[in-house]
Amino acid sequence: MKPDSYIDETNAAMLRDDHTIKVTPTAGQMQLVFDSGSRSDFKLAQFHMHAPSEHTFDGKSLDLELHFVHTYLDGSLGAVIAVMFDREKGGNGNNLFIDQLNGIFGERTSLTG
């Protein structure tokens, strides 16, 4: 499957608390074309992060877990895609994404150690 089109809108609301950041876009949608040729329209309902990760792997939490929550246009749940961040496997060099999140979270909830 591949994204066929994406309508981008940049307006979004951001909610921050002690353990997560949640971003809810106010508009935007995409259409996926599946291998069978069928198409489905989705919208990004929200994305949020957990630091450390919400899920564990072999009993170990990772540095960050990012969830992209998609719904069908009627509002029913379509899919949740998780992206994991791990400095141990991914390297411990500077990471602009993590640096920017640290700027949002501040020193009280550092994502880099």
Describe it for me?
The protein has one domain: Alpha carbonic anhydrase (Carbonic Anhydrase II, Roll). Helix content is 12%, strand content 50%. With 113 residues, the protein is mostly beta strands.
The CATH class assignment is Alpha Beta
- How would a textbook summarize the main sheet? 7 strands, antiparallel
Structural class: mainly beta
CATH topology: Carbonic Anhydrase II
Shape: globular
What is the number of helical segments per DSSP (H or I, 4+ residues)? 2
* Overall structural domain count: 1
Task: Detail the topology: elements first, then pairings.
Blueprint: E1 2-7, E2 12-16, E3 20-25, E4 29-33, E5 39-50, E6 56-57, E7 60-61, E8 64-72, E9 77-85, H1 87-90, H2 96-105
Antiparallel strand pairs: 1-4, 2-3, 3-5, 4-5, 5-8, 6-7, 8-9
Using brief descriptors, characterize the structure shown.
Carbonic Anhydrase II, 2 helices, single chain, 113 residues, 12% helix, globular, seven-stranded antiparallel β-sheet, mainly beta, two-stranded antiparallel sheet, disordered C terminus
Summarize the structure.
The protein is mainly β and 113 residues long. Strands 1, 2, 3, 4, 5, 8 and 9 form a seven-stranded antiparallel sheet that branches. A two-stranded antiparallel sheet has the order 6-7.
